[in-house]
Amino acid sequence: MRGAAIWPATLSYGSVGLRPIKKRDRQAWNEVRARNREWLTPWEASNPEPGGRLPSFSEMVRALNDQARAGSALPFVITETDDDGVARLAGQLTVSNIIWGSAMMATAGYWVDRDRAGRGLVPTALALATDHCFQNLGLHRMEINIRPENAPSLRVVEKLGFRDEGLRPKYLHINGVWADHRSFALTADEVPGGLISRLRIRG
């Protein structure tokens, strides 16, 4: 089964790590999310069904782990290791919609603790995940869709050299409305040396 071959995975570079999200992350995840509610709400996915709700933490973890076992997602938490050597939860990065066969592609989405924004965590985490998908899983394309107003997220893809493929009108339901997104992508042949190497060179 393909899922068993691709998951679990743990990745790291410097103080930044990616590891599988687990039910025991509930307290740390809830604390970071509560502290960042105002920061994250404008970019949050929402349920377009009348009266619909988002899954609870346990429901989310269960669904993501089911997808990981099926080979259709890689659900990571982003960690940052402090000076005492403790890796603390700093955000989340999910590689989803993995399509095999003739497409060999995936989509990445992420969020990070505002207190840690601007320190290179997300570019490093995204570079780690993309390199893993290209170099270890053999995927061909990584795509990211970002609200045009989300300047911090746009800086992430710009720093890593993702190609702007244009606007997708009303692409995803975000914070209660169907929202436009800009689509960015990279293919494996565009970064033969990997994104971590590109990040290291660009600083």
From TrEMBL:
EC number: 2.3.1.267
Family, similarity comment: Belongs to the acetyltransferase family. RimJ subfamily.
Protein name: Ribosomal-protein-alanine N-acetyltransferase
Organism encoding this protein: Arthrobacter russicus
Domain N-acetyltransferase: 16-189
GO molecular function, one term: protein-N-terminal-alanine acetyltransferase activity
InterPro entries per record: Acyl_CoA_acyltransferase, GNAT_dom, N-acetyltransferase
Pfam families in the cross-refs: Acetyltransf_3 (PF13302)
Keywords attached to this entry: Acyltransferase, Transferase
